[in-house]
Amino acid sequence: DNIPQQGSGKPVLILLLMLVTLILIFGMGKWILRKEEHRKRNIRLLLSAVCFYAVIYGIAWAFFCKYYMTWDQRLVSFFAEQFALGIDDVSASDLAYIGAYPHQLGLIAFMEPIYRLCGWENYHAFQTVNALAAGGIVFVGYRLVDKLVQREEADVCYLLLMLGCHPLYIYVSFVYGEVLSVLFSLMAVLGVLNWVESRRKRYLS
């Protein structure tokens, strides 16, 4: 009887917290952009700080959350380790997994050189790559907002909101491809937008 029902909560409190958060964000944004001559510099400093924060937060979370690989992540890491060590002794059930989920081969191929360079099943190295990718997401996302909206207020609000994008940093710990996929997808969108503007083929490579 004490189990909370789905949808239960305090919507008024949630709305109030959202309102306070928005007021703080707009207030901080106004303060950052208060002087016309310092706007560009302040935005660059904020961008650098948020990218650095994303990387450090991601690495710290990955190393201190006591994460252990399970299920799909464990199997993907296993195959990457096997290929890195040059071992081809895999069971029929393992091969059946690859047959059922061939899209995992890309992630396996990505992890293999990391294991070759950083040691046997060193998934902390992959988590570090994820953390760097989180910083990349912040940067590329900023470029997209700047290009699409072309307002400094939007740039600052985006960067301040990314400080609280905790799911992104929490996902850094997973030995999986979500963070990298988001980064590469954003880069693809940015490349297409740059190509539409300039028609330079290098943006499609």
Describe the structure.
By secondary structure, the protein is mainly alpha-helical. The protein has nine helices and no strands. The longest helix is centred in the middle third of the chain and has 27 residues, at 123-149. The mean pLDDT is 82.
> Averaged pLDDT, please?
82
Give the number of helices: 9
Low-pLDDT windows of residues: none
Q: Report the order of strands and helices.
A: HHHHHHHHH
Oligomer: single chain
Strand content: under 5%
Radius of gyration: 21 Å
Largest sheet: none
Name the helicity range: over 70%
List the helices and strands and how they pair.
Layout (H helix, E strand, L loop, with lengths): L10 H22 L6 H26 L6 H15 L6 H9 L3 H15 L4 H27 L2 H11 L3 H5 L7 H21 L7
Helix pairs in contact: 1-7, 2-6, 2-7, 3-5, 6-7, 6-9
What are its keywords?
205 residues
Could you write a compact summary of the structure shown?
This protein has 205 residues and is an all-alpha fold. 74% of the residues lie in helices and 0% in strands. It contains nine helices and no strands.
